[in-house]
Protein 1
Amino acid sequence: MFAFIVRRLLLAIPTLFGVLVVTFLLLNVAPGDPVTEMVGERADSATIARLRKDLHLDEPRLKQFTLYAGGVLRGNLGNSYITQRPILRDILERFPKTLLLAGSAMLLASILGITLGVLSARNPGGWFDRLGLGVAYLGISFPVYWVGLILILVFAVMLRWLPPSGYGGIKYLILPAFALGSRSIAFLARVTRSAMLDVLGGDFVRTARAKGLRERVVIVRHALRNALIPIITVLGLDFGYYLTGSILTETIFSWPGLGRYVVNAITRRDLPAIQGSVLFLSVVFVLVNLLTDLAYAKADPRVAYS
Amino acid sequence: MDPALSTDVPTGRAVAYIFDGLTRFTPDAKVVPGLAKSWDVTPDGMTYTFHLRSGVKFHNGAPFTAKNVVSTFQRVLDPKTKGGRGWPLYPIKGAEDFAGGKGQAITGLASPDDSTVVITLKEPLAIFPKLLAMPVTSIVPDNAGSDLGQKPVGTGPWKFVEWKHDDYLKFAKNPDYFDGAPKADSLMARIVPEMSTATAEFEAGNVDVLTVPDETGKSWEADPDKKKLLQSAPALRFWYVAINTTRGPLSDVRVRQALNYAVDVNTILSAVMAGRGTAANGVVPPTLAGYDASRKPYGHDIAKAKQLLAAAGHPGGIDVELWAANTDQSPRLSQAIQANLAEAGIRAKLVQREASSVREAARKGAADLYVKEWWADYPDAENFLFPLLHSKNKGPGGNVSFYSNSKFDALIDQAHREQDETKRNALYSQADAMQFNDAPMLYLFFYKDMYAIQPWIHGFTVPAVFNGQRWTDVTIGK
């Protein structure tokens, strides 16, 4: 197990290096000059030339890359072109908020999605199953920004139950978490349903029922446990979606997380901030994938890593 | 919120709450004394003597003196500050050299005693006091480090309390403010990126004052309850399409005039901008001296557009690229303009990219037509005529039409030297008429700002210039 983790972490190094190279190249070939953004609408050529030199933008690409990569290796993601604050500090300030939002959305999606899936599977073709199917279709079809705006309109403006946007206590968290999790609820419900149906037809379920176990115990302890593998896969894969989805959700709900930071950085051509955020999110993604794999082993004793 | 680094409107607004310049703008765009209680200018217009207020203290208790002015201006220009906006101070003798790393001090800047600042310009510039009301020239305390942007300390009506990044900014009143403490106790600026969310916050009663998006404004104006909350005023914002006068057929004035006749500005204004503005008859907006109400906009005349194109040798029309940012109103504006141009036989290919790359291409001269907006930095006709059209400012300076007309330049240069307000404004009118005829741009409209104000808020007026509203007269009551 330990050797497996170490090997996976070592394998992550070339992956992250690749991310570093690709983002650097993409940002450099994309049109648009960061200095244009820094100086605003009215500027003079001397200032532009001076800033380009200060930021090493006048150096050859390879030199720029080695300067940047050298900084990254020393744990320095550079300073923002716009605010001149250290990028790493900005990221570490915002990431916990994104993690809170993504985590809440995931929790919400797991509870609602799995429950919905299990209940649908108990009586396939029944009214609840069909209702669940309808809900799932809607959840998958509606884009997150639309769901977000509708939630704001209904629960904040019309009913006034919750604040429309902002960051604070749990009441600020409910709407964005639900908006971000809506697609996953639908997806998880469908995956859980089909996994459960596969399992419920198994001999061991019949045996459990024959032993006289209560239905709830049969479903939760015997069937669901065996249906968990595909559910974990979906949850792990969805994590990437939570990170990208947070970009839209955070913008709509004015949530001061990393997603909004990235959007700001992109519109303002803040190259080190974009690069730093992408790299950081890649690290998170690699770690989540590792955790997903470890969760397989926990859920299914037949899976063992060495 | 470091004044030396402020180049955008939201930062500029926040800087105006916390800091003071030697001068400042009122909401109706007049320039009035700030930290300088008065100033004299020599008859040749070269030397300004600013008499500073005494007894003013920074929020940290340090006294404000003339030395702060000198160190602030040096800080703005110092290459180590990495600021992008030194130009408002370049008129000072030696300032540009200092910014370029040449020279130990700004030769034209002196503080003979604690309450006097003497500024010598490199050439006369009648609008100079207005440049000192810009965010970048706000006075900062001594030893202001790089932390000033995070924990700003100024002399202004509001003290900085807290900045939750991407969430809100909080200010408390400065009870000792030299111009009278603000009437309200605190001020909070919410940072909401999505306009429909901000609108929802206003409707939920969580926000007191809102800048109303175009379409929302239209529907609220039709709602009697909402209409009562709305306040609008002409802004110093000008929408236009820069025509690169150096590219192909666009170098012909007849073609440029044809473009102007081809576009139905009034229809676009009502369909795309919810009627928020008035058709432009030049670059000087109606609220500023130098505006000439007697000049008519080009008007919509397809036949005339075709006739001008034919006269210029393009009876079959021309092909151009129309560049626009993919944000805000730009995409819809550019599509409407494209459709109008097509009626006159002008085949415009849309190039939509994100704002900074469109701007960069236009600055390099790579865009034929570029849909854009200009926000005034200071309320003066000069702020439209000089950056947008003087040949000195081609490219990054703001003249992305690459317009070059020595007679026009001469008028603007003369206006810069002219100390008499009336004569100066007459020169602006004349220059505006001249360029309007040369049509280095497709004149769209002067925008109107609209705010919604909750019934419990009193004393708010819509500012004409973005940093003209400092919330000092605003009160909260039932």
Note: Chain B touches chain A through 52 residues (CB under 8 Å).
Protein 2
Amino acid sequence: MGLTRWWTRVYTAGLPVDLRDTRRAEVESDLWESVSDGAPSRHILARLALGIADDLTWSLTLMDTSTRATATWSVGSLLVFVLAWMWLTLAPESLAMRESRWAFPAASIFHLLGMVLFLGMRLVLDLRMTAWAFGGTSAAEMVKRVGPWSLVGAIVTVVSGLALYSADPSRMAGSAMFQFKVAALSAALVNAWFFHAVLTRRIREWETSTATPAPVRASAYLSLTLWGVILVAGRLIAFV
Amino acid sequence: MRRKAGSLVPLELAICTAALDLRERGVEQFHGYLIAKELKDASDAKLLTAYGTLYRALGRLEQMGLMASAWEDPQIPADENRPRRRLYALTPDGQTAVANAARETAAPLATPRVSTT
């Protein structure tokens, strides 16, 4: 029952309030009727599991456009993250990366260019969100303009980073500094997701204000710290 | 797959038919769990229809005007110490849809043309 309630809360979270409350109340009533009718827990669980696809498609159909976009890219990012993680744990050593004269330097250059683009954009965004700079630009406008460029930077960085990793996976995986970098990267990605998916949902209410809400400022400070840590950890992998 | 305009998918038709059966037994309004039980009994299935599938189908039927719903008076669940029920009822259009579907099912197949030459 708890699982059914939790799942109902999850897939209705991005819906308009009336739809959300209606579905939650309806499932709650159904659960109560099931239990008072003596339905076994495994049947309740099966009803939940078999309806998940319908729950998700229903929810995606009724979400407002921005929530749907957020949900879509959140799931997409999670998928990319899982695939990247699998690559890190399963990647075989790439002979091309080790033996080609140009592959490793090219990947290093792209990694650096990607980082400059991504971190540069992220810095601008975080400075606006901490209210240290760019107060004259609307926060929503800043997110809109910076977002696509930082995404391009992130993709270039991640792809080139995975290529660099494949040159010597066993040594990299065993490096404490690399492990630290990956942990910080995971935290930074979760923070970035939280900022875009949750904190900017009411951006219209404070977009022109230089004093951004406290959770937004906290997320921006955390972002600045974590990306700084990741940058330094990345440089130190070769030395520590 | 797009459905033909005005046609019902099997689950929607089953819900409307079960609602009609309930009406014939004197039950005008029903909640989700009750209709799920009716569907299970009618099809001899082992499990009740999944939450997502059932409520999505009920929502579609309501949008099509074949089903109407209303939340019960809050005093009733308060007195009975249970969550409030959303009660559904088959509309006249819903009843017509069931009758049409029954007619289509019962209609004999077109007689094959036989060449006489």
Note: The interface with chain A takes residues 31-34, 36-37, 47-56, 59, 71, 82-86 of chain B (CB under 8 Å).
